Give the backbone structure.
Amino acid sequence: MCTLSWAPVPGGYALAMNRDERRSRARGIPPAPQLVHEVRVLMPIDPEGGGSWVSVNQLRMSLALLNRYEESPHDAGGTFTSRGLLVRQLAWATGPDEVGLALESMPLVPYRPFTLVCQSLNGVPHLFDWDRRALTRTMVSEPGLVRASSGSHQAEAEQVRGELFRAGSREPGGLTAAALERLHRGHLPERGPLSICMHREEAQSVSLSLITATEKTASIYYVDGPPGETQNGLLASL
């Protein structure tokens, strides 16, 4: 239940992610600088699972994790490792090749299906998809929607949100960091399960992380709360 988008900006890229969670889940801990294998990293922390869902490091490499609900086991039983720990474990990496090699060397069976997105300074998003059978790698070359995951209305949510980003790319100025933030705060076509700022009875968008990375700086602008209804955010930089 998340939406991830990207756009190139002068000297780098912007990456925006809405985290969608059940209303009863503990609030995330806002991003703050920390060290992962001696590399400085910014990432919010999930106090329940101990992992994260998005990060950027001093090398200007970002990770973002989305669940693949359509392929996740419906049986809540069994023992699974929190997918968010993958972000914490790999946040030090220099780029998609290192991330891919690390994932290929790990036993992934303990993880429910996921998409791990890797973005480096001068590249496009690389997607690593694990469906509990195989790990595949693809790329997204067109700015806008990278991936949407939804606990319900999966195909419709992807279609509606994708069109919102395509419409944004046609507006004067195209997709910028500010445009991504505006879209991720939006309730089009209406406030509900299909809007990018998502609302359902049992779940909603609980935060927005807007990463901006250039040769000079890397930062996360973090909105702690439903982004369409929370005005202010916190800025953490490396």
In short: Helices lie at 84-90, 96-105, 154-169, 177-184. The first helix runs from residue 84 to 90. The chain has four helices and 13 strands.
